[in-house]
Amino acid sequence: MAKIPEASRRRLTLLAALLASFKGERLTSIQMQKMTGVDRALIRKDISLLGYKGGVSNGYKAQELLDAIRAALSLPLPGQKRFCCIAGLGKLGAALMQCGIFDESPFKIVAGFDSRVNRTEVLSADFPLYPAAKMETVIPQAGIEFAILAVEDDQAKLMADRLATSGVRGIVNFTGQILEAPEGVAVENVSPLLALNNICARVSGNAVERKPTNVG
Asked: DSSP state, 156?
């Protein structure tokens, strides 16, 4: 199988998430284009990198394609759990902790950390909360692979470095700082501001500028 470029990995990961909830037996590249917003020719090229040969004139078998993507990208299989933590228990971290978004996912939050001891004492969660000073001990003991970073911007790099030193393999960075990946650690920068800039860039050539109007 050919090496899969990062851009293709991202598109295939998105496709896998959509296929996991797809109800039909087959789907075409035209359907996938509508689902993902990615040109169908590019989708077919990405799928060809998997070494998957199941495509025919009337489309792809959805489950077979999903299995091929999961195998090629080492995505979690149904029933598997990958352990995660939240670093930073301010308003954002507390909201992520309580929103339930992870409940039906393969990713299980098993610990929360904050440099302010009082935050770990006043918050309640379905998993243990620890002072940040215990990360280096708790993370390897709990088998935590991934971290969600939700600290203040000025703490982002320091906390990311500590997470890496503690054995975390990947960090989802929700802070406003764009982080370089520590050695041996994958970082996904997903700040809402970065996402809005990406959206702005995507739609800038397709929409007429809208000026605010007074309401009321």
From this structure: H
